[in-house]
Amino acid sequence: MKKTVYILILSLTFSCFSNAQEKKYFSDESIEAFNKRMQWFKEAKYGMFIHFGLYSQLSGVYQNDTIKGYAEWIQAKSDIAAQDYAMLTHSFNPKDFNANEIVSIAKKAGMKYIVITTKHHEGFCLWDSKYTDFDVANTPFKRDILAELSTACQENGIKFGTYYSIIDWHHSSQQRNTSGNDSWSRWGNVQMKAGQRPVYIKYIKNQIKELIDNYDTDILWFDGDWVDWWNNDKGIDLYNYIRGLKPEIIINNRVGKRKSFKKDFGTPEQEHLSNNVEYEWEACYTMNDSWGFKIDDTNWKSAVTIYNKLNEINSNGGNFLLNVGPDGNGNIPLKSKKTLLKVGEMLKMN
User: Fold this and answer.
1) Is 136 within 8 Å of 202 (Cβ atoms)?
2) Distance between CA atoms of residues 204 and 164, nearest Å
3) What one-character-per-residue DSSP string does 143-212 give?
4) What's the CA angle centered on 63, arms 61 and 65, to 5 degrees?
5) Average pLDDT rounded to a whole number, residues 179-207
6) Distance of alpha carbon 209 from alpha carbon 263, whole angstroms
């Protein structure tokens, strides 16, 4: 099979995948077709990341103790068993969640797309999935958060993206690594049970199909690729499956191993590239120190810092995905809102 110019250009960053791995959509897309598919993304330059889940209502506190680290990792940091953590579904009721307001803030801030954590590592789904009961439909809230947000995005000309974690602390296929001596080795490197990987991959594909069919997601933003039971072969297979469902969709590089896989775009986290590279990329940052809402985290970046960071990232060919973490009631923190709107005013002036 003849290589395309695009594959030749990116061969180093794709870590020399074999012909057997170069399947339909991965190798057959010309550089012209790739650029056309990526055009809106490259022009967007600035987007909103939303980390929202069961962890949001804990606010970084468990059993009256403030837990160190990212708020969305509180299950791992506190070593909470999956069945105990699942009890949070009984109190999940973000009654103030307002998709129209969130999209309005993003638009006024100058953002062109939104990516929300549809399923973070905790495994909880923000939509009514046919393939699990561990979802928003089985909470007091019940409303379909993704339906509301995707509709608001469409009505306001904002692209809609969905984050999906490859690892899942709730799914029966995986188990806490009992040999681990800290939260990362126990939960970050969650173990796959014997013979269960095909079962879980089918689960992933079923849910991804729901996100595409039901919400017409424009971006699939994966995470959790670091576990040893996931590799580039599995990532390419999933990538091809997704492109078969929606050829024009954009997928981040964490569908495979982020260090060697760069298609469709690289994803440096809490840092950004200082020069132009021969692949598309997007830097994601928090507005304070945590992705999920953490009540005692007041280390906010200023509007000037964010504005300057946006300009630097864009000048080096990247997009800027800036995170907000709604609280347990579904409200974007007031400080985040004010800062975003200030950056929007600065962008209009300049």
Assistant:
1) no
2) 9
3) --HHHHHHHHHHHTT-EEEEEEES--SSSTTEE--TT-SSHIIIIITPEEPTT-HHHHHHHHHHHHHHHH
4) 50
5) 97
6) 20
Q: Write out pLDDT tens, residues 295-334.
A: 999 999 999 999 999 999 999 999 999 999 999 999 999 9
CA distance 59 to 114: 22
Alpha carbon distances (Å) from 289 to 51, 184, 300: 13, 18, 8
Closest CA to 306 of 290, 330, 284: 284
Compute the chain's Rg from CA coordinates: 20
Q: Taking a C-beta distance cutoff of 8 angstroms, is the pair 250, 38 a contact?
A: yes
Cα separation values, 106 from 44, 190, 228, 338, 341, Å: 12, 34, 36, 11, 8
Instruction: Give CA–CA dist 267/250, Å, rounded.
Output: 13
Cβ atoms of 113 and 48 within 8 Å: the answer is yes
Contacts of 206 (CB under 8 A, 6+ apart): 130, 131
Tokens of 272: 């950004």
Going by C-alpha positions, the residue among 230, 148, 234 that lies closest to residue 188 is 230
Listed by start position, the domains of the chain span 45-349
Q: State residue 8's pLDDT score.
A: 33
CB 120 within 8 A of CB 72: yes
Domain 45-349 architecture: Alpha-Beta Barrel (3.20)
What percentage of the chain has pLDDT greater than the value 90? 91
Query: For 146-167, what is each residue's pLDDT tens digit?
Result: 999 999 999 999 999 999 999 9
Q: What are phi and psi of 105, to 5 degrees?
A: -60, -45
Tokens read off for 196: 């269960």
